[in-house]
Structures are given as structure tokens and as C-alpha cells.
Specification:
The structure is a single chain. Helix content is 35%, strand content 14%. By secondary structure, it is α+β, with helices and mostly antiparallel strands. α3 packs antiparallel against α4.
């Protein structure tokens, strides 16, 4: 896989739409802490089902919130990824690690 195809922000799981406020769904508030970021970090487009309909939305986060989530996803990823070894990590793991350190 080409490194340009890996987007760590899009690998981060976000809460279900039913658990979010209108501001979070509209990309005005962080999907995790609900506060408005001064410098929003885009998490990429998402498709979710809500009330039986498909909804495209563009969540945002604080950089610190995204970095914390990336660290958690990275820790889980390297334990379960068949491509990651103790000395050599896949491109997904490398991207998640870089995002986790980007605060």
C-alpha cells in the first residue's frame, strides 16, 4: 500500500450519531469532549445510519482529543495486526503513532 493512502484520522472510531449533539454532528464541536476547538482537526467524512437513513457527516475534534484516541487505537492495533511485528510496524500503525504524538 502507498503511504499516501493511509489517513490516521479516518481510522479513529467516533461515537454513534444518536449519542452526539447537533453541534457535534454539524462539525462545530469536538465529537469526544463536546467543546468547540479553536483549531479544529478534521476526522474525515463519515457515513452513518440514523433513523433508517444514511447520513454523511464531517466530524471534528481537538488535536489533543484526536491524539489521545490515536494512542488508544495504536495500542490496540499493534496487538492485533498480523503485519505488525516487534521491530517493523505496518503503515497504519505508523500513521496512528505519528498522530498520537502530534499534540
Amino acid at each position: 500500500m502507498h503511504p499516501g493512502f493511509v489517513n490516521a484520522a479516518e481510522m479513529l472510531p467516533v461515537p454513534k450519531l444518536d449519542a452526539l449533539t447537533a453541534e457535534q454532528i454539524d462539525g462545530e464541536a469536538c465529537v469526544w469532549c463536546r467543546r468547540r476547538p479553536r483549531d479544529p482537526f478534521a476526522l474525515g467524512p463519515r457515513l452513518s445510519a440514523q433513523a433508517g437513513r444514511l447520513h454523511c457527516w464531517h466530524p471534528i475534534a481537538h488535536r489533543r482529543c484526536a491524539a489521545q484516541r490515536a494512542g488508544k487505537v495504536y495500542a490496540l492495533h499493534i496487538k492485533t495486526c498480523a503485519r505488525c511485528t516487534h521491530r517493523d510496524y505496518c503503515m497504519d500503525a505508523q500513521a496512528l503513532h505519528k498522530l498520537a504524538l502530534a499534540v
